[in-house]
Amino acid sequence: IGPAETALSYMKSKDIDKFDFVVRVNKSHLNLKQYTDRLGTRTDILFHCCYPDPIVGCEYPNEDALIEQKNKYVIYPYDLPHAEINFWRCLLKFRRINFFKLDKKYFNDIVKIYKGKHPTTGFQALSYLLHQDLKELHITGLTFLKTPYIDGYRDTHKTPEKINEVVKKSGNHNPDAELELFCQLIENRKNVFMDATLNQIVDEAKDKC
Q1: Dist. CA 115–CA 16, nearest whole Å
Q2: How many C-beta atoms surround the C-beta of residue 101 within 10 A?
């Protein structure tokens, strides 16, 4: 479950809470109290960039919220020596939650084929999950920056225009390249289910190929 407002229209909380694992990205765990009937109550796994900047980063995780949400793991997916200090700061700062650094293989395998500088945390979460042996994978709230963020996530740059302006200025991410790779990852996958907006985005991307 990502930070796009499309997450509000996919399922109700009671349905989300029935899944074995609920995975969220970056600051998404902070929106649950605001939307108790739509986003579920758990964050079993949180993929987080550990970069404490509210504009180009995601602020630190909220330890109290994650404990309340029965968090099992916070996963740092990057393999960037110059930025790894942020992961270690989180590891030392938050002693009541479990931080893990993902095997660098997952990051480096993406970088080899990525048409950009660094893949987003959201795409790395998707890539990792799509490489696991899952009975079902449901995806919502991830739209490759083509729709607005949910209220309260990043209100300073909520619209696709503002989001992409910030992304372009930072020079780090390439959402169109990530969408292309995502389409390849889900090709012929019968166990992947997406919200209506992401389905449409994927269909339109395939038509352009």
Answers
A1: 33
A2: 16
What are the CA-CA distances from residue 53 to residues 20, 26, 27, 154 (Å)?
Answer: 31, 12, 11, 11
pTM: 0.95
Rounded CA-CA distance 202/179 in Å is: 8
Q: Tens of pLDDT along 24-33?
A: 999 999 999 9
Give the chain's length.
Answer: 209
DSSP assigned state of 103: P
- State the residue for tokens 């479990």: 98
Phi, psi for 76 (deg, rounded to 5): -95, 115
Using CA atoms, how far apart are residues 143 and 153, in angstroms rounded to an integer?
15
Q: Name the pLDDT band for 56 (thresholds 50, 70, 90).
A: low
> Could you give the CA distance from residue 57 to residue 190 in angstroms, rounded to a whole number?
34
Answer whether 148's CB lies under 8 Å from 159's CB: yes
Helix, strand, or coil here: 194?
strand
For residues 12 and 18, give the distance between their C-alpha atoms in angstroms, rounded to a whole number.
Answer: 10
Torsion over CA: 124, 127, 131, 136 (sign): positive
Tokens of 107: 């990051």
Parallel/antiparallel/unpaired status of strands 23-25 and 45-47: parallel
15, burial (CB in 10 Å: exposed 0-12, middle 13-18, buried 19+): exposed
